[in-house]
Specification:
14 strands, globular, Aspartate Aminotransferase, domain 2, 2 domains, single chain, Aspartate Aminotransferase, domain 1, 378 residues, binds pyridoxal-5'-phosphate
Amino acid sequence: MNQPPIPLVDLKAQYAALRPDIDAAIARVIANASFIMGPEVRAFEEAFAAYCQARHAVGLSSGTAAIELTLRALGVGPGDEVITTPFTFIATAEAISAAGATPVFADIDPATYNLDPAAVETVITPRTRALLPVHLYGQPAAMDALAAIAQRHGLFLIEDAAQAHGAEINGRRVGSLGDAACFSFYPGKNLGCYGDGGAVTTDDEALAGRLRKLRDHGRVSKYVHDELGYGHRLDALQAAILSAKLPHLDAANAARRRLAARYDELLADTDLVLPVASERVTPAWHLYVVRSPRRDEVLASLKAQGIEAGIHYPLPLHLQPAYRALGLGPGSFPVAEAASQQVLSLPLFPELSEEQQERVAGAALSSPARRVDSMAAG
Ligand SMILES: *Cc1c(COP(=O)(O)O)cnc(C)c1O
């Protein structure tokens, strides 16, 4: 292979672009030797809350911890049901289970891959306490319809915004669209740190206060603990890195949208199904996901040309061995199941070059996914 490989995500390119700011942030934390909580965490929380158009942000150790602690802080636990999508990373449902509640799945919309509000309505029971939509691939879920359902049934509405930092509906940022929103700063996310990290944003001061207590061993003063909590704080080092990166997030998301539009052009008139953004939505494309009944052949063709692609996600959660006990077999959520067999994520990161994109498109089109006109010609 004579051409350099193209990764799905290139974190080294991102560090190269921001290196002086990030190195200075890390050096500052080490020089101050203030590693746990303190001014770095507070400063990032304030900046991130403002960015998300929310009153409060609480820094946490991961996105998974953000979901689990939000549910616990809202009093959702054993005997309660939380409705979510089966077509997401397992952490979404895992956090519901970790809180002691039961994940209840509803099928997705085939165009956006996000939770289908009509399907949600059919699985509400007297035990339902919360809706947990995911803004998958950086596209906000149908929050207006979900908020109406939540309101009608007296349910909490919690965003899993782990893939959508900076996405908007009608000018309103994710993080401000429900009772609380859970973010991950896992390195490959749109806003990523250099390890694990997460946050919850909310306008609810009492909820923010309870999360601050829960993340820090239920502590109300140094050695007085009001209740049993967790060691789920955001590290000061990670907060400092995130503060250095946050001012660049809008530009990075704009680059993702530009690159997605260019993929749309390069792959137009093929038999690949391309991503669609809903009306009034500004996506923060975390992944550029195409769809093909011959997905595995396209994947093989990309791989043969040194191009890394991904499948998000190959097995819906109700078919995961870990969720066998839910007793949901194949056929339970046909839209999610079909998507899991057909979706393919192409390389996408803000520093991806035009030349790299052309190579990706060329490799995808040299596979059985080809121009519609050449297919018609046989
Ligand atoms: C990454 C991710 C999470 C979990 O975040 P971690 O920080 O890795 O715990 C949760 N939900 C979704 C949709 C994610 O993509």
